[in-house]
Write a structure and sequence with these properties.
Helix content: 25-40%
Largest sheet: 6 strands, mixed
CATH class of the largest domain: Alpha Beta
Number of helices: 9
Distance between the termini: 65 Å
Radius of gyration: 23 Å
Shape: globular
CATH architecture of the largest domain: 3-Layer(aba) Sandwich
CATH topology of the largest domain: Collagenase (Catalytic Domain)
Oligomer: single chain
Number of strands: 13
Number of domains: 2
Order of helices and strands: HHHEHHEEEEHEHHHEEEEEEE
Structural class: alpha/beta
């Protein structure tokens, strides 16, 4: 079995080499660097194929164990896994300005997390685009993504850090991780046991939008310190209005990160790891309920069926998030893909730490001194929409954030000098109870808000 699989892996390398010339200059051929990185290692490291096979065996064993565990009704759970995602933004000032400045970046971070939670939980209205043959396979991961509010050192954070690159900086090419090292101009990852690190940068390679490493895949590649995800800044967030600029056409619904998040949780491309353009039915993604297909797709032909390798009902699942058909076509994970991802965060899995440290989601609570020296008034409360937040002493105030009952940051204002009065319009929010977080240098003061 080992010899057969190793032979197959080496055949993949030959296929990749045969199509490398075709890939050069084809913008679509480089949408995600995941396959490129793998096949480069297969081609250049003679010890890698055996390591890669062991890695695959470990993943499959973990999935099998998870399936057995959840087959027992007593072990089933509806608990939501909450994943803290920190965004490290490394851009020039011009690029930051194109996203709406610091405030615009924070808004895009929230919209991006909304997209992740929407798609991982099957809450997307466009799921109707999947073929009828796939509806019984529609997977919902019950995973919620949010910003952390506590740094590794215990101080407060909005969950987004920004570093201004030198003017004229051209960005980062493929197969580089230099954006993850502060000593060479990037931003260091936060403790990957507790945080899922995402770098938002200018990916300066034609058509390439991102890549992602799971913890065990990063270890396989010999770069465990660089686990996490990289995406281009022009696919970060969601475009909510036609007038909003700065997005790559067809990649403006936040689904580039959905795709790369799939890679982080050890999903392959739906056609496997063969280079795009090879057109062969000898590879697969290792998930039982995704039909085998010969290649990646770039064109959405909904509602038409594109025949898969075995002429099965429904054809190719080109509307799967792990294909290449774009944000306005990809609409689903399968139950098998969800099982593979959840096996990563189950106890003993390589990413289980992401669900074990809920304190990183909470604001620091050392506020006794602030409470003694600062009066925080919210009026009117309850409110029908508008509220005024005033401070008797705004020294050290950094930001004011509105948090919903799920712990999600939904509105935020950065403090301006010693300004002591701020207004929020909550009329676009659902009625209910919210929490106001006033973050000072020394800690955070909270107040409950009732929206009627």
């Amino acid at each position: 079995m080992l010899t057969t699989q190793l032979d197959f892996l080496m055949k993949k390398v030959l296929v990749a080499a045969a199509f490398a010339v075709a890939a050069i200059g084809n913008v679509n051929a480089q949408k995600c660097a995941h396959t490129d990185i793998l096949n480069s290692k297969l081609a250049n490291d003679p010890t890698f194929p055996a390591k890669y096979e062991q890695f695959q065996n470990d993943v499959n064993s973990r999935v099998t164990a998870y399936e057995k565990l959840t087959a027992n009704t007593a072990q089933k759970t509806t608990a939501t896994a909450t994943i803290p995602v920190v965004f490290h933004v490394v851009l020039t000032q011009a690029e930051i300005t194109s996203l709406g400045g610091t405030e615009g970046i924070y808004k895009r971070a929230i919209l991006q997390l909304d997209a992740l939670t929407r798609d991982f939980n099957g809450l997307n209205a466009d799921s109707t685009k999947m073929h009828a043959a796939f509806k019984s396979k529609f997977g919902k991961a019950n995973m919620y993504f949010t910003l952390p509010h506590r740094k590794p050192d215990g101080t407060g954070t909005l969950g987004v850090e920004i570093k201004v690159a030198p003017a004229g900086f051209a960005g980062y090419g493929k197969q580089t991780d230099s954006m993850k090292e502060s000593v060479i101009g990037g931003l260091d990852p936060w403790d990957p046991e507790k945080y899922l690190n995402v770098w938002v940068v200018n990916v300066n390679y034609p058509g390439l939008m991102g890549w992602g490493y799971s913890p065990d895949y990063a270890s396989l590649l010999g770069i465990p310190q660089f686990q996490g995800i990289v995406i281009d800044y022009q696919v970060f967030g969601q475009k909510k209005a036609p007038s909003v600029g700065g997005y790559i056409p067809g990649a403006d619904s936040g689904r580039t990160l959905v795709h790369e998040m799939g890679h982080f949780f050890n999903l392959w491309h739906i056609w496997g790891n063969t280079e795009v353009g090879s057109g062969v039915c000898t590879d697969d993604d290792g998930v039982s309920d995704t039909p085998q297909q010969e290649d990646g797709n770039y064109q959405c032909v909904f509602p038409n069926v594109r025949t898969n390798c075995h002429s099965q009902s429904g054809g190719e699942m080109y509307m799967n998030y792990m294909d290449y058909t774009g944000d306005h076509c990809t609409v689903m994970f399968t139950k098998g893909q969800v099982t593979r991802m959840l096996a990563q965060i189950t106890p003993g899995g390589p990413s289980d730490g992401l669900t074990k440290y809920p304190e990183v989601l909470q604001w620091p609570t050392a506020v006794a001194d602030i409470e003694r020296t600062t009066a925080v008034d919210v009026f009117p409360n309850p409110t029908n929409g508008m509220i005024n937040v005033s401070f008797s002493n705004a020294n050290g105030l950094q930001a004011i954030t509105i948090i919903n009952i799920m712990g999600q940051s939904i509105k935020q204002i950065n403090a301006s000098g010693n300004q002591s009065d701020y207004n929020f319009d909550l009329s676009d929010l659902a009625k209910g109870v919210y929490t106001l977080h006033c973050r000072f240098e020394e800690g955070t003061v909270t107040r409950k808000i009732v929206l009627q």
